[in-house]
């Protein structure tokens, strides 16, 4: 029941989350910044971040694919790329404790955005919604997101709905100039009757929510 309306094309995004060994986080980030060009030679990287608040020793990266055949071809090419395998993948795997991936589509009412400038912070918010998919909660959820957008304190980057992974999951990426700007904006939003009403309508379908503050890596296209 989770599959619902999405963009009118076959493009999807693979969201990868890695838990890094605490003593190896610095080393892992340095390796990514040094060798990620070997990986981006095969497909498009949307963003690569490390968690600052809400999680520890965690990185999140998002990759764009035209369709599933495209991803299959990329994975095959990577398996045969000796530079990628030898310089990054083999040594990096020893630094990783867990890997998790999901396939998600942009919701039909959202385009992937960009921040107005570099140097800000990203907030990755994961909503676990009740079973039933967008047919059940999509309209209310859209209203809650747009209510926050309309306050003007934050910039919406993207809204993704899972297709593979834990279903009825929605990931929302926001951008703010800094954590204090975000905190002040949230305080104002909580006192805005329009936001309160929209959130109250949407939260009826919510099972859980997690917020993580992310810092973009030097190599991340979204900075």
UniProtKB/TrEMBL annotation:
The highest taxon in the source lineage is Eukaryota
Q: Where are the transmembrane segments?
A: none
Annotated NIPSNAP domain ranges read 13-111, 122-221
Question: What is one process in the GO biological process aspect for this record?
Answer: mitophagy
Q: Name one GO cellular component term.
A: mitochondrion
One Pfam family linked to the record: NIPSNAP
UniProt lists the family membership as follows: Belongs to the NipSnap family.
For this entry, the protein name equals NPS3A protein
